[in-house]
Amino acid sequence: MTLIDLGYRPRPQFEPFHRRKQRWAIGVCHRRAGKTVACIMDQIDAALRSERPNPRYAYIAPLLKQAKQNAWDYVKDFGARIPGASVNESELRLDLPNKGRIRLYGADNPDSLRGIYLDGVVLDEAADMSPRLFSEIIRPALSDRQGGAVFIGTPKGQNSFFELWEEVKNDPAWFKWMLRASETGILPEEELRDARRAMTEEQYAQEYECSFQAAIVGAYYGREMETAEREERILPRLYDKSLEVHTAWDLGAGDDTVIWFYQVAGMDIRLIDYYAANGWGLDHYARVLTERGYRYGRHYLPHDVEQRVLAGGEVARTRRQTLEGLGVPVNVVPKWTLEDGINAVRRILPRCWFDSEKCADGIKALRQYRREWDDVRKVFYERPLHDWASHPADAFRVLAISVGEPRANRPAIVKPERKWVV
């Protein structure tokens, strides 16, 4: 064995993480604790020590540009000290002398992760990733080599990252650690006092004290979804066979296409089902509608359904024409400004009931949808953060525009006290 000193000295808080024996790990860490550099060094060490042929490790951030910004300098700086290692700048890849490889990816391009095998993966800021990414793409990639995964991040409300933490916190098969700024001593007290002055109480609790209870900072619909939970409007089995089912869509181009399924009963809007996928043609989504077996009313889509697509040098049919050729009659909603659409959603959310089982991922997305934060100026941009929650929120905005204000002539449906029984 050759000893290679890369100059890395782990902080005491991360030494147990580096000594762990478990295949799975989850870390909830305050800002500037050093979780990214610790995980990158953990992967480099594992790849160099691996006795498997051609070991493969991946570091994944919510966006590829985040992966490059947060981790690439560490990969290059430490990797350059390894004799025989080389760096591929265009692919954000470190190649090791034992034919091992560490590569950076973005969760915003899940197709780039399909078909690969992995000995280990780090999902950084896992709270900002689609809950489907791990189960549908990453977990299968680990199977051939029985690879392990590390989930790290800072809380952003009670989303899938929180649910994972709660699910495994007493499971000995998982290594778990939580680093709160008030306990680690990593950041000076003066810095923490200054951060408290500059941030709201909720922001500080989330970013520095690892609070899952604090509202998601900058969330557009956080209060409305919290109210729906408190008023017990999120519950199972809402579908009523006597009512038509309408759909509201967001069409992805290389990313998620999302469909909300809903019914209108008097003043109430019942979100009974939800579907999201990527990498499929429109015929796939037409089949999804058929397989659901609902009695449909109207299908609402945004204005970009009218766009024509170039195919083989010729102007193809519009997506509207394609859908209607597949038996899906299209209703195009008016083109509203983003701000007006968000306000429309806020107006209808007090009327909405959600199926807690079939709409689980959509509910998480509505809670997660938030404004983008400018870390330099310490202010929010007016635009939303574009991440996995954007497409479900865009489809819900189509729904809000399609429903509009309540109409007096809609017949009220008498419903049981808490939930509907089919």
In short:
With 422 residues, the protein is α/β, with parallel strands linked by helices.
Topology:
Elements: H1 15-19, E1 24-29, H2 35-49, E2 56-61, H3 64-79, E3 86-88, E4 93-95, E5 101-106, E6 120-124, H4 131-143, E7 148-153, H5 160-168, E8 174-179, H6 181-184, H7 189-198, H8 201-207, H9 222-230, E9 234-235, E10 245-250, E11 257-265, E12 268-277, H10 282-292, E13 296-301, E14 308-311, E15 314-318, H11 319-325, E16 330-332, H12 338-348, E17 352-355, H13 360-368, E18 371-374, E19 379-384, H14 390-403
Parallel strand pairs: 1-7, 1-8, 2-5, 2-6, 6-7, 9-17, 10-13, 12-17, 13-16
Antiparallel strand pairs: 3-4, 4-5, 10-11, 11-12, 14-15, 18-19
Helix pairs in contact: 2-3, 12-14
Question: How would you explain this protein's 3D organization?
Answer:
The structure is a single chain. With 422 residues, this protein is α/β, with parallel strands linked by helices. The chain folds into two domains: 12-207, 3-Layer(aba) Sandwich (Rossmann fold); 222-403, Nucleotidyltransferase, domain 5 (2-Layer Sandwich). It has 14 helices and 19 strands. The chain has helices at residues 15-19, 35-49, 64-79, 131-143, 160-168, 181-184, 189-198, 201-207, 222-230, 282-292, 319-325, 338-348, 360-368, 390-403, and strands spanning 24-29, 56-61, 86-88, 93-95, 101-106, 120-124, 148-153, 174-179, 234-235, 245-250, 257-265, 268-277, 296-301, 308-311, 314-318, 330-332, 352-355, 371-374, 379-384. The strands form four sheets. It has an eight-stranded mixed beta sheet, sandwiched between helices. Strands 9-17-12-11-10-13-16 form a seven-stranded mixed beta sheet. Strand 11 (257-265) and strand 12 form a beta hairpin.
